[in-house]
Sequence to fold (381 residues):
Amino acid sequence: MRDRLGRECLYLPSCRLALYVALRHWCAPGGRVLMSPVNDDVIFFVVLAAGLRPVQAPLDARDGSIDLSAVPEETWSGLSAVLTTNLYGNPDPAPQLRATCDRLGIPLIEDAAHAIGSEVAGQPVGTFGDAAVFSLSKHTAAKAGGFLAIADPGLREALVKTRDELLDPPRRAAELAYWARPYAEATVRGLRLAPAAWAVLRMLGRQEREDIRMPLRPGELSRAVAAAPSLSDFHSWVRVDMHDYRTGAGGLRRARIERKLGRLDAVLALHRAGAERLLASEWARPGPGPVQPLFRVPLLVEDRDAARAALAEARVNVGYLYDPPLDDYAGTGFTDPSPAPEAGRWFARHALPVDPLKAELSLRVLAESGARPARSGPGGG
Fold:
């Protein structure tokens, strides 16, 4: 990844831990961070754990990217940092964000978990910010690991020290569970034992949310916020679906990651081809720029829940849903709401993130189920 990005890269056992390390290094506690309201709630809790106040940004209703034109000047003036999301691999406007952060003298941190192969103006996502965090669980399907890419290689030693202070040592039981997980999942799914598959995921700490969002638990969260910055006080929120997010990698994990990364170019080509097919469908509303090797393609469907159920019947699982937006989910007690929330709400309500590797099957199911494209909402179209 150092060769791909032209930046120093530091391995961590998860993208969420990499983000925590970045926020603690670049942002003083008490600061305010602009971020997307259509994002995983784990990321929201990582920002809070770092002692920071999330500020929700207005979005482009086509692809969920940050809409710079809708951010008021008074919002910019009070920020300590900007955190991009690059939702599903659709790039946020990184060059303009970089210029704005330079003008304000604040860091730009890129969350590139979904965007390991995406580009903006011919430049890889993750090379615009002071730091960028990536996941090795998404395109590579390694089911473990993340890394932190940094603009200044001179910071590596300090970041390694911070990382190592947060790590739990590798555990043999965790390594064995990691090795066994894909085989257990493949077996129960191959036998069409869907409830057993979910039971396996829950047993391994990989599926804990009963709904799209985890319970907020505001009373406990208020006490945790008062103790921040503190990862341990937020452990019950940050660990959700990944109990080993702080566990150092053993040999089995490193070997699988290496194999998966070796196939990355071929996988990205397949994701790009599938994304192109999906974006040509009646349910798509593509954003600007060329087709990216998207991790998921957000089709915009009128009755998203019915379409999701139809896909589930065909054994196509739709995950990575972020509805309601974080400002509606958390309220003003824990975040500054978006100054223009309508587009984010509309996108969150209608977005159906489809795996581009299952493009043809998904399109056939949607057509046969009678799924209708979302009616014109914010952004027109």
Residues 172-190 form the longest helix (19 residues). Residues 2-166 form a domain with the Aspartate Aminotransferase; domain 2 fold (CATH 3.40.640.10).
